[in-house]
Amino acid sequence: MTAYLIPLIIIGGLTSAGVYLLLERHLTRMLLGLLLISNAVNLLILSAGGRSGNPPIRDRTSAGSGETTTADPLAQALILTAIVITMGVAAFVLALTYRSFRLNTAEEVTNDPEDTRVSQRSGNESADELERRFEPDRSRDTDLPDELDALPGYEGSR
């Protein structure tokens, strides 16, 4: 199997750009990074599938090509499946982005307070000391139905 240099460079560039975008804090950039990585994987599967050839149907040949080998249908099926899965994940991430924007009016992902608390914990502190130091702000209840509902004008069951 011969690997061509130009497709491998394109795959590497798409992958590196996708990873860079995935590490951003904005959800739309994360989505774009996910799509770039998906396209890079699709190109990788296509290049690993081998050379092109006749259609994988018995007694069929390509018009005017005179190829003697048959194309591998597995790579094409895997790419088609990967495209469908990627579009489903993209729709899900878009729905999460819309929901996050409706609730917070911001698209940026913030640090989780529990993760921050765990990362600041030194090995010799007890759980009670940590609870006293990092008391949650109970003055604002964020579980109200009007904040969780995406429909404008929804009043909930007040």
TrEMBL record:
What InterPro entries does UniProt report for this protein, alphabetically?
CPA3_antiporter_subunitC, NUOK/Mnh_C1-like
Region entry Disordered, spans: 110-158
State the Pfam families in the record.
Oxidored_q2
Q: Name where it's found.
A: Cell membrane
Primary location group:
membrane
Any coiled-coil ranges, and where?
A: none
Q: Where is the composition biased (Basic and acidic residues)?
A: 129-143
Q: Where are the transmembrane segments?
A: 6-23, 30-50, 74-96
Q: Which family does it belong to?
A: Belongs to the CPA3 antiporters (TC 2.A.63) subunit C family.
Q: What is this protein called?
A: Na(+)/H(+) antiporter subunit C
Native source species: Mycolicibacterium hippocampi
